[in-house]
Amino acid sequence: MAKGTDFILAALAAEGLDHLFMVPGGLIDPLLPAIGRQTALTPIVAAHEGGAAYMADGYARASGRFGAVVGIGGPGLANMATAVAAARTDSSPVLVLSGEVARAMEGLGAFQDASQATLDDTALMRPLTRLSATVTDAAGLNHWLRHGLTTMLARPRGPVHLSLSRDVLTGDVDAAYAPVSPYFADLAPLGLPQAEAALAALTVALTGGRTRRAMILAGAGVADPASAALLKEVAERWAIPVATTLRAKDVFPEDHPLSLGVFGYAGTRHATAAVFAENLDLLLVLGSGLNERDTMHWTLRARSKAAAIHVNTDMDELTAHCEVTHAVPGSARAFLDLMRNRLDDGAAADAGRAARRSWLDTIKAAPRFYDTDTCARPGAPIHPATAVTALRRAFPRDGIVLVDSGAHRAFMGHHWTAYEPGTYVSATNLGPMGWAIPAAVGVQCARPDRRVAVVTGDGCMHMHGIEVQTAARHRMPIVYVVLNNAALGNVWLRAHTEGPVPAALTSLPDHDWAGFARALGASGFTVTDPARLDETFAQALACGTTAVVDVKTDKACPTPVYDFAAGVAAWSYHE
Questions:
Q1: According to the lineage, what is the superkingdom (predicted)?
Q2: Between 20 and 30 A from 331 (CA), which of 35, 93, 129, 509?
């Protein structure tokens, strides 16, 4: 027999976790002594339940496993709602555990009662998760925990929520836990008939098409290391140019000769030119949901002249884009493996490789980026692209950067160079402001061997900057770079053209974020001169603890999203 609390902690450790993110509270009091009875899980206490859930999300993305967060029901769980929704839209596996009153107290007016008799926590979480369920008896804990994890790890992945009554936490569990994670290890299902038909079309495009010009658009479905390695191998073997979505920016080395960079929001000129080329034979889309930002505001379907193959595990996304020539349900990794083993590698393939290299040379003869002069602009206030470029010089090649939501996302997406899979992390679908600040704590827990940095804005710091304290308290050497333009940057760029009131409503005070950091136990640096960026970033990386670099930036800088903006302006909906 084990107490419910001890059973939960042992189960999480058996699944391979080594950190648990939380905010203590009355409804989970029994968990606290249980944490002291074990050593496998390191507890990380966040400042806010939303921050704890963001940390679990970051841990999941960086570890390749899943993240776990625990807090009280009612206000605690409600504080997690946005974080859980962000995990849902990005298919990030996060286990959310919330404490609840004892069954005998439900509906009697107990403090913070959010059981099914009152607020109903499970109903609150149901639209945001793959599964939301109430566990009222310790006898059912083993079943519901394993069922929840199975639902979370099945494709498409996403968060699950279990509301645990006090009876469950304090009751005895008479069960031996068997981990479910191994069931999903290396699982790569593929619709073989559809894949075979797509492979035949791909073979024609690579070896015998009009121009033998084919390219890959890689999305989040190839973000895991094994898929990214296969992508690189296949691309090199058949000389196939590769563009990525913004979320998958790091899945293919951006300094590779076959790299076209990002397509869509904040994308490169090379990627746009290749995708919309009149003589492109075939576009192979791997693991992208083809949402607004991945498709240049949905103009991909109207402007691209190429036949298209779309491989995705999410059938909803496949059927939403049924105009593709071949829709292949299944794993992008499995399809890449099929390509590696089955594509023709004879004389016709040699001709195709030569044709694609020649085509790629033509594309790369033109400039890759917009506004390259802004990457080293002198004078104050500092241009955001200048700060991004300086951080890239100072930051290790294998370091992990997290990018928040705001104008800085566009500057990072366009001007940052990602070299390795897993080194560029961002919540790109729902994209809540401030996500990256606590998520970096989870990433650093999962990857203590890597340097971790965050590029965020002052608006994001207003929302979740307090979690710098969590990083500092745990002595995590995370470097937070605040591109501080005293504004809600992206919104201000639109609003200030509408008059003084919209401009004022989207402006912010110029706070001293370096002083804020020092007050929380971190190191703080302020940069007003671009000539001081390199040395300041070096100092922040070398200081050995959490550091905040307050970079005073210019808010009146157009973001490098020109191709995307043109797509928005030209777009019309076609059923």
A1: Bacteria
A2: 129
